[in-house]
Amino acid sequence: MLTDFLLASLHHLLVFGLIAMLVAESVLLRGALDRATLQRLAGIDMGYGLCAMALIAVGIGRVAFGIKGYDFYLHNPWFHAKMGAFVLVGLLSILPTVRFLRWRKALAANPIFLPDAAETARMRTIVRVELILLAAIFVLAAAMARHGGLSL
User: Fold this and answer.
1) How many angstroms separate the CA atoms of 105 and 34, rounded?
2) Are 40 and 104 within 8 A, CB to CB?
3) Cβ atoms < 10 Å from Cβ of 32
4) Are 40 and 28 in contact (CB under 8 A)?
5) What is the SS3 string spanning the chain?
6) What is the rounded CA–CA span in Å between residue 71 and residue 66?
7) Which of 21-25, 41-45, 67-71, 146-150 has the lowest mean pLDDT?
8) Of 126, 13, 146, nearest to 82 (Cα)?
9) pLDDT digits (tens, 9 = 90+) for 81-112
10) pTM for the structure as a whole
11) What is the chain's alpha carbon radius of gyration, rounded to the nearest angstrom?
C-alpha cells in the first residue's frame, strides 16, 4: 500500500511539474525574446524532458508495482487512449526542443541572435497544443480510474 501511495503521489507531482514547465515556456514565448529568455527556455525545456522521463519511469512503476496491477492497465481502453495522448505530447515536444537548442547554439555563435517572430509563434502554438493534450490526459485518467463504470 505504501509503495502504491508513494508512486501515485510522485506521479501526480511530476505531472504538475510537467504542466508548470510547459506553462512557463508558453509565457516566455508570448513576449519579446532576448538572450536571457532564450537561455531560460532551453533550461526549462531540459527540465521538462527530465520530468517527462521521470514520469515515464514512475508510470511504469505504477503499472508493475501498483495496487491495481498491470492487468487493470493493459485491459483498460482509457489507459491506452491516455498513453496515446502522452506519446502525442512527446512527439509534439520534439520540435520546440530542437528549436530551443538551435536558438541556444545560434546565440552562442552570435550574441545578438533572435529568432524571427513567425518561428516563435509556431513554437508557442505547439506548446499550447501540448497543454491542451495534457488537459485531455486528465480527462482520460479520470475515465481510466473508473474503468468499471465506463466502456467504449
Assistant:
1) 14
2) no
3) 8
4) yes
5) CHHHHHHHHHHHHHHHHHHHHHHHHHHHHHCCCCHHHHHHHHHHHHHHHHHHHHHHHHHHHHHHHCCCHHHHHHCCHHHHHHHHHHHHHHHHHHHHHHHHHHHHHHHHHCCCCCCCHHHHHHHHHHHHHHHHHHHHHHHHHHHHHCHHHCCC
6) 11
7) 146-150
8) 146
9) 999 999 999 999 999 999 999 999 999 999 99
10) 0.89
11) 18
pLDDT at residue 131 greater than cutoff 60: yes
Q: Which residues contact 40 (CB under 8 A, 6 or more apart)?
A: 28
Q: What is the pLDDT of residues 46-90, one digit of tens each?
A: 999 999 999 999 999 999 999 988 888 888 999 999 999 999 999
C-alpha cell at position 98 = 530542437
